[in-house]
Amino acid sequence: MKAAARLSLERAAHAIRGARLLLEGDEPELAAGRGYYAMLYTAQSLLIEQGLQFKTHGSVHGLFGKHFAKTALLDPKYHRWMITAFDLRLEGD
């Protein structure tokens, strides 16, 4: 695994830990943001492993959809979940 991909997965794990703590503290709106970032960082890791470059959340969403959801390399529901989580994060912010 590429070092940058590993770093993204570590960031995802950190975001998941943060989301759990926020849920335990009865902060679901803030936890939604951390959950979204866990998904984003995981998607980034997958894109890095494929040698794909991105700069924005939108480019991660698009590339993940193109290379993983549309090809059915991964179930398209994960792409939908990430987009939904992005919207929830915006509402929570």
Polypeptide structure, described:
- The chain has 93 residues and is mostly helical.
- The protein starts with a helix and ends with a helix.
- Helix 2 (28-49) crosses helix 3 (57-69).
- The protein has helices at 3-24, 28-49, 57-69, 77-92.
- The protein is globular.
- Helices cover 78% and strands 0% of the residues.
Order of helices and strands: HHHH
Mean pLDDT: 96
Separation of the first and last Cα atoms: 33 Å
Largest sheet properties: none
**What's the total count of β strands?**
0
What is the gist of this entry?
The protein has 93 residues and is mostly helical. Helix content is 78%, strand content 0%. The relative contact order is 0.16.
Compile the SSE list and pairings.
Layout: H1 3-24, H2 28-49, H3 57-69, H4 77-92
Helix pairs in contact: 1-2, 2-3, 2-4, 3-4
Provide key terms for this protein.
mainly alpha, globular, 4 helices, 0% strand, 93 residues
